[in-house]
């Protein structure tokens, strides 16, 4: 026979179990609410390279769909040939971000071929660094070898220019998508804050190593070198020849090799990791034999990197580490 006490105990246990189960279900429902899909991106942006694509993504956030024409490290912007898909992407875009200065002439051709013309943001034109012949209008038909004399078109290594590109993006995106104007402006401000952090790193290098000698294979990171207060001692004829895909004269190559020797040698070599030739290999080997650190820089984002600040900050950190070694 089941006693009243036994029955009560069983009922109590059963009730507690039911209460706990109910509470558990309620907690699970509160902790994992049904996911609601966010709004689809409303603005299409095309960038000539993934460097500018990364800037566009930082400013546009979830409101933009960014397509980078050059999006792999093995694609050469100087030699790139447009595809029909590229033309379609630009035709559907609201904004096209280019470097300009003759660097990515394929982007100008895309804009011309597109049925609907996007607003073009040209970094070289925004930079204020270039002579008139290197601006968008003057360089529209220019090849890589026809750049304005002495002008370094790699302006994505010039942080003030990158900030201008971000501001221009925020302004143009706000025009085509007014409801999200505030988000674009806030994103651009946050991005500029991160660029300020990179500038602080360069200022720290400058304070510690003002005037220190460095060598390069190409003038890709020239603006970064200048901002860090460093001195490029590579013969200009050597780096220009490499940039144009030519072999430097033997005498010039020897001069480039000699910068790693003597009582006051170059303290780091900034090597364009995306361009290798017999001459650049000799320079890299000479640096290695002399115990000079090699800092690899790139023209587009390395595989696995999608954030501009992460990429540029990593290169700056490598440069600082190389200089701190001596």
UniProtKB/TrEMBL annotation:
Residues 1-19 form the signal peptide. InterPro entries: Bact_metal-bind_prot9 (IPR050492), ZnuA-like (IPR006127). It comes from Pseudonocardia eucalypti. Its main location: other. It is found in: Cell envelope. Keywords: Metal-binding, Signal, Transport. This is Zinc ABC transporter substrate-binding protein. The lineage of its organism: Bacteria, Bacillati, Actinomycetota, Actinomycetes, Pseudonocardiales. It comes from the Bacteria.
């Amino acid at each position: 026979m089941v006693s009243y006490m036994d029955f009560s105990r069983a009922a109590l246990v059963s009730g507690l179990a039911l209460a706990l189960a109910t509470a558990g279900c309620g907690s699970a429902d509160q902790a994992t609410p049904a996911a609601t899909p966010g709004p689809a991106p409303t603005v299409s942006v095309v960038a000539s390279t993934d460097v500018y694509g990364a800037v566009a993504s930082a400013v546009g956030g979830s409101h933009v769909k960014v397509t980078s024409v050059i999006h792999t490290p093995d694609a050469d912007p100087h030699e790139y040939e447009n595809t029909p898909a590229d033309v379609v992407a630009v035709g559907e875009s609201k904004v096209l971000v280019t470097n300009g200065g003759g660097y990515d002439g394929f982007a100008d051709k895309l804009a011309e071929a597109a049925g609907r013309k996007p607003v073009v943001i040209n970094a070289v034109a925004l930079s204020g660094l270039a002579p008139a012949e290197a601006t968008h209008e003057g360089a529209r038909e220019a090849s890589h070898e026809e750049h304005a004399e002495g002008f370094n078109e790699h302006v994505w290594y010039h942080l003030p220019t990158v900030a201008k590109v971000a501001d221009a993006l925020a302004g143009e995106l706000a025009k085509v998508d007014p409801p999200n104007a505030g988000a674009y402006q806030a994103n651009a401000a946050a991005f500029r804050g991160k660029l300020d952090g990179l500038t602080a790193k360069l200022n720290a290098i400058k304070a510690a190593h003002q005037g220190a000698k460095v060598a390069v294979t190409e003038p890709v990171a020239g603006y970064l070198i200048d901002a860090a207060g460093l001195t490029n001692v590579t013969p200009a004829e050597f780096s220009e020849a490499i940039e144009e895909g030519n072999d430097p004269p033997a005498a010039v190559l020897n001069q480039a090799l000699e910068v790693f020797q003597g009582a006051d040698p170059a303290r780091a070599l900034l090597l364009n990791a995306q361009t290798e030739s017999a001459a650049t290999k000799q320079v890299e080997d000479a640096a290695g034999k002399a115990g000079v650190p090699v800092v690899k820089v790139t023209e587009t984002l390395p595989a696995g990197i999608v954030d501009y600040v992460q990429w540029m900050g990593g290169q700056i950190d490598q440069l600082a580490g190389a200089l701190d070694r001596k």
